[in-house]
Design brief:
There is one protein chain. Helix 6 links the parallel strand 5 and strand 6. The strands form two sheets. Strands 1, 2, 3, 4, 7, 8, 9 and 10 form an eight-stranded mixed beta sheet that branches. It is built from eleven helices and ten strands. By secondary structure, it is of the alpha/beta class. 41% of the residues are buried.
């Protein structure tokens, strides 16, 4: 009986201590590591979020850019940081679900070294073709690609093994198409090549190609996701276009070193969600860039990452991409 009492008492003490940790967090500045340089989507969203968190917490929230190696440098830094909630990582699929399948060796373990906090946003991807393409629908493009046996049609990407390449590699397999992959160093040099017709197709984020579609330089044939985009409401989803969805999207999430107190993780997730769903923040930082706010719980984000880990494993296998 005494042992049971001691166990019960210890559980009460642990629960109380977790509550105190959450109530007092943060007691000093918090750093959010961004694995990209200033000015990109991940950096911009993180900096906007940090300003609001600063006001919410009454503590400085600093953004530290640890760039390079497909998010590996930033991921390693955070994985080896103290598990106290004061060093966070604004990551994408690259670090969390793609790199483990693209590299033989990594200086971190994507599945074991991080505590998921929140799936922040998702950015739907749009299948685009040149304005002079004979395809006016996604089904027409598929048929053209199937008939182009002498000269296979091409799809461009912002780099081999990336979020733009892997979904289209799976698309080609699903539709039984022989297509040529043409990698570029980012979306900036890819877009003019699609506009000029040097590349037959690509899939990029709504915010990146919206202006080119509206100006008539590109044709958007379908958007990946359950719903149409507010920015391009005339563009059907893959399902509406009669083609199996490739689930192509760019996602940004927040994680901490594994072992970070669950109460702290829950508090950060709750505070972040409140900011993401605030009407003024959504209008200026989410809707303005055609993002979709998620603001998940830690458990929801954990489950999503587990599912996506398997998805990316299959995509990498199909594409044959390796980045060692």
């Amino acid at each position: 009986m005494k042992n049971l009492f001691k166990i019960a008492l210890s559980l009460v003490v642990v629960a109380a201590s977790h509550g105190v940790v959450a109530e007092t967090f943060p007691a000093k500045p918090v750093t959010i590591v961004v694995p990209y340089s200033a000015g990109g989507p991940v950096d911009n969203l993180t900096r906007a979020l940090s300003v609001r968190l600063n006001k919410e917490w009454g503590q400085p929230v600093l953004v530290l850019n640890k760039t390079g190696a497909n998010e590996i440098i930033g991921a390693e830094f955070v994985a080896k940081s103290p598990a106290d909630g004061y060093t966070l990582f604004a990551a994408t699929e690259a670090a969390l679900t793609m790199n483990p399948h693209l590299y033989k060796k990594l200086p971190y373990n994507a599945e074991k070294d991080f505590a998921p906090i929140s799936w922040l946003i998702t950015v739907p991807m749009v299948f685009i073709v040149p304005q002079n393409s004979k395809a006016n629908t996604l089904k027409e493009f598929v048929q053209l690609a199937r008939n182009a046996k002498d000269k296979p049609m091409s799809y461009g990407s912002s780099g081999a093994g990336g979020i733009v390449h892997l979904p289209l590699a799976m698309f080609a397999k699903q539709e039984n198409l022989e297509m040529v992959h043409v990698p570029y160093k980012g979306a900036a040099p890819l877009i003019p090549e699609v506009i000029s017709g040097q590349v037959d197709s690509a899939i990029l984020g709504v915010s990146v190609i919206e202006q080119h579609v509206k100006s008539g330089k590109l044709k958007a044939l379908a958007i990946s996701g359950d719903n149409r985009s507010v920015a391009l409401p005339e563009v059907p989803t893959f399902k509406e276009a009669g083609v199996k969805d490739i689930n192509g999207a760019f996602n940004i999430g927040l994680v901490a070193p594994v072992g970070t107190p669950s109460a702290v993780v829950e508090k950060i997730a709750s505070d972040v969600r409140k900011i993401l769903m605030a009407p003024d923040f959504r209008s200026t930082q989410i809707d303005a860039y055609s993002y979709v706010a998620v603001g998940s719980t830690p458990e929801e984000y954990k489950n999503y990452l587990a599912r996506d880990f398997k998805v990316q494993a299959e995509r990498v296998k199909v594409s044959g991409a390796k980045l060692d």
